[in-house]
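Appendix B. Raw example, untouched.
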Amino acid sequence: MSAYTHEEVEAKLLDMLEEVCDSDEVRTHRDEDLFELGLLDSMAAVELLVDIEDTFGVSIAPTEVEREEMNTVNLIIHQVEIRL
């Protein structure tokens, strides 16, 4: 059982993504490709993975998941939750 509720994971990741992407658009474009929107690039994605590990204790190696599995806000939330 996770120490975090879905709402807590969602809130923390939205805050993280808003900071990493430097845009609050992540809150309204939750099923759109963040790379295609220009909100996330490979450097920001690595920063996000480090933040996820620091915050949730969940390690997601960049080689472990395809970009298509973590390119939207909702997919990122899902990838974190299945590892908690």
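End of appendix B.
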